[in-house]
Amino acid sequence: MTLATVITLIRLALIPVFAWVAVDYGRTVDAGTPDEALRWLAVAIYTLASVLDGLDGWIARHFNQKSLAGAILDPLTDKALLMTGLATATFVNWGIDWHLPVWFIILVIARDVEIIVGIWVLYFINRKVPIKPHWTGKVCTVTQMIAMGWIMLQFNAIPLIYPTIAAAFFTLWSGYEYYMTGYRQLPGKSHS
């Protein structure tokens, strides 16, 4: 097992720890006595897991530690971390008005399901699925993380609705781009 894969496994193990601390913080908010140390601990754990993502990728590239396990585990861990963060930002009480609307997480899940089903359909039809990330997908992830961070950090200089709308816009746009990319790979469709 490579060092990069070990770091990915550490990131994977941090996800339930983050969720537990976030839920525990939400309980203190519900009780009317927010334990800010728990909130900052949740932020620190999430940040550590995110920073380790960059580290495992760097190690894999620079020390030629790319592996099939890492190629499968790393993106799954990325998605699990993001979805856990978004779920806590939606369903855990981070304070008055500090949560994402339920429609937002439904939109994010619908986009991910669309991509997974699309890959499955393309593989079933074509027996191959050339996947190239689109820039809107990367911006989508960044804007989702910003909206989630807005809540965890309780950044109130700009209302939460603005980063939420930006993230929703890029979630929809990237979903459309991935749909069109898949559609063009169907037999008899334009491959431009």
User: Could you tell me the strand content as a percent range?
Assistant: under 5%
Average pLDDT, rounded to a whole number, is 90
Overall SS class: mainly alpha
Poorly predicted ranges (pLDDT <50, ≥5 residues)?
Answer: none
Radius of gyration, in angstroms, nearest whole number: 18 Å
Please report the total strand number as a whole number. Answer: 0
> Total domains, how many?
2
Q: What are the secondary-structure elements, in order, as H or E?
A: HHHHHH
Largest sheet: none
Query: End-to-end distance, in Å?
Result: 40 Å
Tally of helical runs: 6
Shape: globular
Q: Share of helix among residues? A: over 70%
Q: What structural keywords apply?
A:
globular; mainly alpha; 192 residues; 2 domains; single chain
Commentary on this structure:
- The chain is mainly alpha-helical and 192 residues long.
- The protein is 77% helix and 0% strand.
- Helix 1 (3-30) runs parallel beside helix 3 and helix 4 (102-126) packs parallel to helix 6.
In short:
By secondary structure, the chain is an all-alpha fold. Helix content is 77%, strand content 0%.
Please describe the topology of this protein.
Blueprint: H1 3-30, H2 36-62, H3 68-91, H4 102-126, H5 135-153, H6 161-184
